[in-house]
């Protein structure tokens, strides 16, 4: 999709964090926006900002886990904006827990929001894209979708699933005009979960570095325009680690400890236990 002006996009998780930056980057390309999130007041503020950029924007209070909310989101977008050209599955949650101490809901909630909902929302929208021979889906995963990190079992499982889901779709629809991409941010400052960690004094490992949410948003747009399969948004030293995780997975637990990743997640886990 080379020219995005006048197209219509759904962005989930659009009321805060990275979702706001993605919505803004799309609006700057002339994309009309259907914004979805559970936070009504914040969502309406984002809608107002997007309209000020000169595009049409609607805001739908939506829990992506609920089938009726997903159906209402799709129907309202189609009715008020027009055919859906772009879907950005951005809504997500994270839980940092010891595996044996985690509640069952840590897993069921995380998998439902981070993996099941994107799959089912994509399934609801892709048939229309195929019929119109136009469309693109971007799934916002995580660096934790490429490398398993300690104390993030539910989050890693969901994000690894999202990466695999995206690549399976690309393989299945390789000859179609509909594209699929996955974006894997690392530690994103000023937005999202890492922003909360920073505010409590927890810093990313030096080798990992941080990225700005504007970079994640820019990459998301480039995935749509250039049909990029997968982009890891992080500092260059992280990419060899991802390759190593695939060719020598037995080394990764020791490397994660040596490079400071394990310590970061231990501190997050302890912080979240503090009342």
List keywords for this structure.
10 helices; 275 residues; seven-stranded parallel beta sheet; alpha/beta; Rossmann fold
Indicate the mean pLDDT: 93
Head-to-tail CA distance between termini: 48 Å
Cα-atom radius of gyration: 18 Å
Q: Tell me about the largest β-sheet.
A: 7 strands, parallel
Q: What is the top-level CATH class?
A: Alpha Beta
Q: What structural class do helix, strand and pairing data support?
A: alpha/beta
Quickly count the helices.
Answer: 10
**What is the CATH superfamily classification?**
NAD(P)-binding Rossmann-like Domain
Low-confidence stretches: none
- The general outline is globular
Number of domains: 1
Question: What is the CATH topology classification name?
Answer: Rossmann fold
Main-sheet strand order equals 3-2-1-4-5-6-7
Number of strands: 7
Q: Percent of residues in beta strands?
A: 5-15%
